[in-house]
């Protein structure tokens, strides 16, 4: 099977757009559609023709390009059943545990409520890649706008257990530098985090994206995936506390800066 090809680009103020292309079938999907013009430019650069749009959640900075792209390209729009009422352009709805084919690749749908109640993430196990929307960010996680902290923790724990270490993670936003600065406040002695921050600062100074990341890197350095870590628990004064409670405290502190 030919490799899945992936083209990531920046758009809006800090969003990522991503195109995925299956050379075997010729299919191309846009992961969310933050900005129609930016997706069109990416299609021109790659020479790929858009067949699908995979939607993680209904927020405008992930959906506002859909209608125009659908009209121009006739793309099939696939997104979360729980947000179908808020995404009128959907052609197919998916829910947790569903799988569908994108050309030669299986796409597993993982529900990750918390940032929004209906949010879904897309995992292509044969390509070792996952699109985590506004759920899992590099060194962070999405703000919990609609669900509870417990719900968001459950979603992250699901990703943590489902996605193998080598999985490349693409997410909705370039927030890594600010996330990393916060991460150091709750996990200051983490050598892997310190080393990663040096890399991230260099990338940002060079104007380069810090994504994709990998599950291995996130497991080692993302405090929101590490609430069992004794050093983090000690800093928070929560030694022995349940992971869900530690996660909630980390989220609360991040929200208050
Ligand atoms: Zn969002
Ligand atoms: Fe967003």
Task: Report on this structure.
The protein has two domains: 5-170, 4-Layer Sandwich (Metallo-beta-lactamase, Chain A); 177-255, no CATH class. It is built from nine helices and 14 strands. The radius of gyration is 18 Å and the shape is globular. It is of the alpha/beta class and 257 residues long. Helix 5 runs antiparallel to helix 6. The strands form three sheets. A six-stranded mixed sheet has the order 1-2-3-4-5-6, covered by helices on one side. Strands 7-8-9-10-13-14 form a six-stranded mixed sheet. The model has no long low-confidence stretch (mean pLDDT 98). Bound molecules: zinc ion and fe (iii) ion. The site of fe (iii) ion has 6 residues, from helix 2.
Features:
six-stranded mixed beta sheet, binds zinc ion, binds fe (iii) ion, alpha/beta, 2 domains, single chain
Which regions are unreliable across 5 or more consecutive residues at pLDDT < 50?
Answer: none
Shape: globular
What's the number of extended β-strand segments? Answer: 14
Side by side, the strands of the main sheet go 1-2-3-4-5-6
CATH C-level category of the largest domain: Alpha Beta
Structural class: alpha/beta
Distance between the termini: 47 Å
Bound molecules: zinc ion, fe (iii) ion
CATH superfamily of the largest domain: Ribonuclease Z/Hydroxyacylglutathione hydrolase-like
Per DSSP, the total helix count is 9
Tell me the strand percentage band: 15-25%
The domain count comes to: 2
